[in-house]
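Shapes recur. One chain:

:::
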Amino acid sequence: MRALYAKRGAGRWLLVGLLLALGGGALGAQAGELLTVCPEGPPLCGFTSIQEAVAAASPGSTIFIQAGEYVGPVIIGNSLTLIGSGPHQVSVAKGVIVAGPFRVELRGMTITAGLNGVQGQSPPGLPEQLSPLIVLKDVVIAGNAQNGIALFNYAQAVLEDVTIQQNGLEVLGNPIGGGIALRGRSSITLSGKTVIRQSGANGISIMDEASARIGAQTFIAQSGINGILVGGNASAYIEDVVVQESGCFGISVADNASAEIVDGRVERNAKAGIHIGGPSAFIVGCQTLAEVAGTATAFVTGTTVAANPIGVLVGDLSKEQDSATADLAFLTFVSNGCDLLVDPVAEKTVRLLGVRAKPCS
């Protein structure tokens, strides 16, 4: 086993602290090494580079990262746990990429200045079993050019107490990228406290056949276009989430996607709180680029929709082929310009239960 270097004093790991950080039983369960990284390198720690430590680690190893600024990209092709001394003390530039059938856990760090902050993928055409699972805890992902998190193929991620902010950029005045992007058949679960702010285009974009479970204590604000976009043939379960101040829609369910939206609050979005139906390709001004037949489906219950120009918009208002099915139950509308607008073009099915809505003229 590679030597574990430790030094007493502020900012240095003590062996007992390392073992406690792993949690009871983790060492025996993973049967890997303990490695350390610090800016000074040996003899104060094992490595000066995170990538060097990753390359040297055996499967199931844990890498402890002391305070400092580190440059990647960090490319991981192994099952590992990387634990930083805290997101305000450890920064990793140029992103983290996980490729292949590995379980990787990242804790206690800031990931910044990459194309995608965290990227998970496997080679196209390989089965689900050969895709990565990425677990993020107490992580900040900020200032990445395209997305904070990008998952492809069958990649999976679980987030707990993660902040994702200021990811994405503008091209010819149109925002691209954002907080989280799911493509292929990837999936994500948000638990604990997740904060997504100031995203380029979408706070969370769920496309193709991807799926998401977005849980309580998720807060999404100031997205360039949509707080949450569910498009393609994707699906999402969204519970007790706060979405506010998006450039177009708080939550948009488009194309042939489906979503269940339970409780939560959708407020102060530029065009509508919740949008169901129409294509998913948006540009600045909330205009859609495509004319593609689709049937979006959403069940919305117990949600407060407040201070939007339109509370719930069913349809696109500019396309002729978009159909939609919306089941709305026990919604609370507060101070919207109007509460419910159903596009009369193409087939729309809207069923209301326990809803008192001010119609749009």
About this structure: DSSP finds three helices and 35 strands in the chain. Residues 328 and 352 are 5 Å apart (CA to CA). The chain has a mean pLDDT of 89.
